Amino acid sequence: MQSFQFQYKAVLRQREVIEQGKQRALAKLMHQRNVMVGQLREMQETISESKREAADGLVGTVDLNAIAGIARYSASCALQGNTLVREIAQLETLVEQARNELIEASKNRKALELLRDRQRQAWELEQRRMEAKRLDEQTTQAYAAKAMAELKRCVHSSPRSPSSLSSMS
After folding, report:
1. What is the pLDDT of residues 75-84, one digit of tens each?
2. What is the pTM of this model?
3. Separation between Cα atoms, residue 17 and residue 88, nearest integer Å
4. Residue 88 in contact with residue 29, Cβ under 8 Å?
């Protein structure tokens, strides 16, 4: 029995490769976003720590240079944080676009897989029909051969068979 051959196998493989590329692109963007969110979190923690240090510096003798340094550092971190937030927002747009492209690539692949599955089912049904037809033909031939053998046996064993009639005359 021959095996099922999907005629669009190469196209399906190409769509799988495209989908995998879209998955990698999305993963790369999400990794970048996670790194940036981690950096932002570190900046926020640093700013919070600087504010605690500034508050501690206001008790007792006040070192204005230290307080000014902490304020400049906090302002610099806040500026970097705002820039990072804008970059993350832009990256979110790219992530959403990449996610939509991945969804579309998945739909394209699944459509071909569905076509393949339907064609395989039709092929399997046709194979079962052909097998049933072959078995039916074998059964019919076996029955016909058995019937012919029975008929020959009956004709030869019959008292009025042509061979017994010729011997009587």
Report:
1. 888 899 899 9
2. 0.68
3. 28
4. no
